[in-house]
């Protein structure tokens, strides 16, 4: 299939019959319900500290806000609509003074490009990377947006599945490089429905950290650096989860990662019955290991609750069970007795372990 270049979005703003009326809302759903087919999109703005949603065209938003110096805006990446791959890197410089965000990006970039090339047959010269910097003495931050020539991801759920595939690939190639995921320098929690994503030229309210690149800040530059273009084309990049299933969004509760094997539902129910509710799941697919934060601070080693640190369950599918550990430095390397899975849970885990693991696969658009 020949690759087709997507039209530049800026071409959509030549004189047309577009009729639009800028409206504002304080509820996201009301903003979505007001959308028309006149190339309108949704932004979240925070001009004076109060968050609100703006429904308008890109040109209207630029003229009303960004071009007037009001630069506290976020793009709303709407669920189930095509978008470019986007990545968020954050380094706490106080905790990691010797780590530079640009070095983390250089390492991650090599893996992302390799996955595109080796698993998706997309050559490097078809990848255009929009790189935004927003660092300060306490924090190193970068946004990267991948524009793939002639293609676009079917939705940001597919972006999340792609990045989980990259994480699996990193773990299989060079385990020591997993530190960028383990320490959350690569934010894997951004692939959620209707995600807010700070735009080029904008800062968080109350801070002076504007996302910048090395180009002049013009309308054309800003709109070409958005994640979700108005004209989206139809040559989609479809990605599957590691078990071959359709991509999953992370839960609204902010805890569970996008992909989990089917057997995890039964495992989490057993852990909740025996200990506490699971609030977050971190997957290490190559090892069939899952680390699950628990909604409790009652430490089995200290005999009383910690003031800050909570517990987590260390699940090992290959061993058919789990142990409980504590996040506190004082309890480092300690773990409880081994808790075996119930018979019914063992059966669902066994079925999963016998399945083939599926690396991301591309399906060309309709």
Description:
This protein is α+β, with helices and mostly antiparallel strands and 366 residues long. Among the domains are: 85-193 and 214-237; 264-353, no CATH class. The protein has helices at 28-33, 58-64, 101-120, 156-173, 179-182, 219-224, 264-274, 343-353; strands at 23-25, 41-45, 52-56, 74-77, 85-92, 127-133, 139-148, 152-153, 195-198, 236-237, 278-284, 289-294, 311-316, 321-326, 339-340. Strands 1-3-2-4-9 form a 5-stranded antiparallel β-sheet. The chain is globular, with a radius of gyration of 22 Å.
How much helix is in the residues?
10-25%
What shape does the CA trace take? Answer: globular
Question: N-to-C SSE series?
Answer: EHEEHEEHEEEHHEHEHEEEEEH
**Can you give the mean pLDDT?**
85
Class of secondary structure makeup: alpha+beta
> In DSSP terms, counting alpha (H) and pi (I) runs of 4 or more, how many helices?
8
**Into which percentage range does the β-strand content fall?**
15-25%
Outline the biggest β-sheet. 5 strands, antiparallel
Question: Radius of gyration, rounded?
Answer: 22 Å
Distance between the termini: 11 Å
